[in-house]
Amino acid sequence: MDEVKVVVAHSERATLRVGDMFLKVDADQARIDREVEAMSLAPVPTPEILWCKPPALAIAAVPGKTLGRLGESVSAPPAAWATAGGAIRKLHDAPLPPWPGRAGRNLDKLAAELDSECEWLVTNGVLPADLVARNRQVARAAFRPWTPMFTHGDLQIAHVFIDGDEIAGIIDWSEAGQGDALFDLATYTLGHEEHLGDVVAGYGTDVDLDVIHAWWSVRSLLAVRWLVEHGFDPFAPGCEVDVLRSRL
């Protein structure tokens, strides 16, 4: 151990790496509690919890590696993406946790939030009006009845570690809970549309691709302002704004 590395940090939480340990500091104790419980319930490999002393949670690093990150070119074989799809399906088939998660937000409130963000993006000249309007139209497909499943809620590609042909661990469970399974699939494939077919093949059942596309638009439209305000760049190649442009 010769350094402390800041993995991510913003006003809500921060994650540090110290040797083989990750230290997560969160202003919301309820979020830490949900993360610990979700990892105990999930039927997929999760990090070992070393200790939990509010406001911090210490977990061990997991083996393996991710397939990449949003904005990166990914060269992993189709089998690796299918392996991730199979793990996601195993999670979704598990007994439901007793609380709603990020992927289970009230659709009426989410639609109102989306309308507000779209107005802000256009009024402030952040994105062209036609780009916002087209993606708001695509986003409508996400607002439909769905069967609650055990969802991760923030299943970014960087949160799933693969070792060979196996899932080595899935990290960052603070948004887990009951939710829309297709939200997870959309989050995992955000910015990597060319691999969606492989993930769905591993998932092992038909999914509505229009809904996946819709969640890409929803997630990206909602993320732009937050990312800008917290020091991230949604305009970087392959990131959220490029995802929105791909719908034109």
Itemize the secondary structure elements and their pairings.
Layout: E1 4-9, E2 13-18, E3 21-26, H1 29-41, E4 49-53, E5 56-60, H2 78-92, H3 107-123, H4 129-139, E6 149-151, E7 160-163, E8 166-170, E9 177-179, H5 181-189, H6 196-203, H7 209-229, H8 240-245
Helix pairs in contact: 2-6, 3-4, 3-7, 4-7, 5-7
Description:
It is a single chain. This protein is α+β, with helices and mostly antiparallel strands and 248 residues long. It has a single domain, classed as Aminoglycoside 3'-phosphotransferase, Chain: A, domain 2. Helix content is 40%, strand content 17%. It has helices at 29-41, 78-92, 107-123, 129-139, 181-189, 196-203, 209-229, 240-245; strands spanning 4-9, 13-18, 21-26, 49-53, 56-60, 149-151, 160-163, 166-170, 177-179. The strands form 3 sheets. A 5-stranded antiparallel β-sheet has the order 1-2-3-5-4. A two-stranded antiparallel sheet has the order 6-9. It has a two-stranded antiparallel sheet with strand order 7-8. A hairpin with a 2-residue loop joins strand 2 and strand 3. The protein starts with a strand and ends with a helix. The mean pLDDT is 93.
